[in-house]
Amino acid sequence: YSGVAAERAKSLGVKVEVVLVGDDLGTVTKVATKDARGSAGALLTIKVACACAEQGGSLSDVLEAARSVAARTRTMAMAMRWNRAVEPSLEIGVGIHGEIGSTKLASLRQLPGGEGNRFATASIQSLLDRLVPSEWLDGSQKVVALLNNFGGTYGLE
């Protein structure tokens, strides 16, 4: 949260609006609750807000665009934990700072659909099942998928 920057700008006479992005469903069941963490959804929100501003949108236009994206953005992180095992464990719903996940699997092979070493497909399907319940989409909406690595490293690095 960039509250310090917003307060500093306000003290200099700059008109400021703050949009909180609570997109991470890893530890909450409802987006935009006061307890939801912000994650990669902030990047999409900022990109849309900047595009609106670049096209000449007013502060209220930019604010409306940012709030619209923030309200509809959902993210969830997945991490492999090596823990000196032959095969890594998998945590779903981990936090951006390495907070433990809401679901832990002892092996990638425990992922539904992971048979035949189809771990990438099974991982994505597992995330999609959690992020996009069928009642949220009727097939007419456009969606954006953003995959990133959270900048994580493992012990050998």
Structural key phrases:
157 residues; mainly alpha; three-stranded antiparallel β-sheet; 7% strand; elongated
List strands and helices in order, with pairings.
Layout: H1 3-11, H2 41-54, H3 59-72, E1 78-81, E2 89-92, E3 103-105, H4 119-131
Antiparallel strand pairs: 1-2, 2-3
Helix pairs in contact: 2-3
Write structural notes for this entry:
The protein is mostly helical. It is 32% helix and 7% strand. It has a three-stranded antiparallel β-sheet with strand order 1-2-3, with no helix packed on it. It is elongated, with a radius of gyration of 18 Å.
Radius of gyration: 18 Å
DSSP helical segment count: 4
Following the backbone from N to C, one meets helices and strands in this order, namely: HHHEEEH
Hey, roughly how much beta strand do the residues contain? 5-15%
What is the number of E strands? 3
Q: Quick one: overall form?
A: elongated
Distance between the termini: 29 Å
Kindly report the spatial arrangement of strands forming the biggest sheet. Answer: 1-2-3
